[in-house]
Description:
alpha+beta
Amino acid sequence: MGAVAVILRVMPESPEVDIEALKAAIREKIPGVSDMRDEPIGFGLVALKVATVIQDEEGATDGIESQFLDIPGVDRAEIVDLSRMI
């Protein structure tokens, strides 16, 4: 097996969620986060694009999405890009 680079869009529960605190919680709870960027959505809502590396094994993508859902303030997390690392 190899490693897979995954980019997820993480949506906060509301515009009132403290984005900096959410970023800190993500870095603390999700191993392998290599980059995180703000993505303005509208009406004050800011999503996060999070890049991380996971092992290429069955169910790994479902597992990473559910890890994000366990973080307070996260409404949903969806994979927007996935690529195998060489």
